[in-house]
Amino acid sequence: MRFDEAYSGNVFIKSHPNYEESEAVIYGMPMDWTVSFRPGSRFGPGRIREVSIGLEEYSPYMDRELEEVKYFDAGDIPLPFGNAQRSLDMIEEYIDGLLADGKFPIGLGGEHLVSWPVIKAMYKKYPDLAIIHMDAHTDLRDNYEGEPLSHSTPIKKACDLIGPKNVYSFGIRSGMKEEFQWAKEVGMNLFKFDVHQPLKEVLPKLAGRPVYVTIDIDVLDPAHAPGTGTLEAGGITSKELLASLVEIANSDVKVVGADLVEVAPVYDHSEQTPIVASKIIREIILGLVQKNK
């Protein structure tokens, strides 16, 4: 797959036209083949790009402008509809290429299973990798009704790969009792309900380490992001999520990549979900890309 060809569709606002000159690459993973409730997240990447035109280029959160960071929007990976394993293999191969070129990957999902091959690629380059995971759900199942390739499994797969003590989950408020018990027994860092305060306490422990950040939009309360596949009441506000990104940006961790997943625009006619998602991507660009330097 080529990275440097011009993308013919809508691109994220202020995307740089040249791949080689760019520090970061935005790419889409339009897959929702394994969702357990409502499909539609495969349309998330496209709509996040489209509504980004309404963003201000300056972020008062990061005190930076988009023109200060060169990022290339490579469009969506052409994933084969319905073929989960082949899609995951293609994503991993794609990220291998980005990392070989020294790029900071910014992924747009798609269901949360798409984060799994990205984490695999990251771990190959960064064997001391840690993960910051913000989500409503534990995602710690081994399978969903017998199927190991499910959007309810990526964090369990990550724990098995890099060790549960290297995974930090925030905002969790839904999952099987067995998942919460397993996390406690193996020493995984799982923080229920809140994000900002426990994150502040954790970040000093991760100083200097390579960290991958994965954000499921349903970490937000449905009042802030109704356009997602599996809604969970009792979530955080968009203000808390933005403050958490600022906290990461101001910390001593080395962020090596990030993704935002599970935006399903069809369930939100107000479009507040893709709008808040595009703002989150702006803050990732302005706050986290520089953490890789």
TrEMBL record:
The protein's Enzyme Commission number: 3.5.3.11
Pfam family, one: Arginase
Broad class of enzyme this protein falls into: hydrolase
Keyword Ribosomal protein applies: no
This protein's record includes keyword Metal-binding: yes
Keyword entries, A-Z: Hydrolase, Metal-binding
GO molecular function: agmatinase activity
Protein family: Belongs to the arginase family. Agmatinase subfamily.
Protein name: Agmatinase
Provenance organism: Ectobacillus antri
Lineage of producing organism: Bacteria, Bacillati, Bacillota, Bacilli, Bacillales
Originating gene: speB
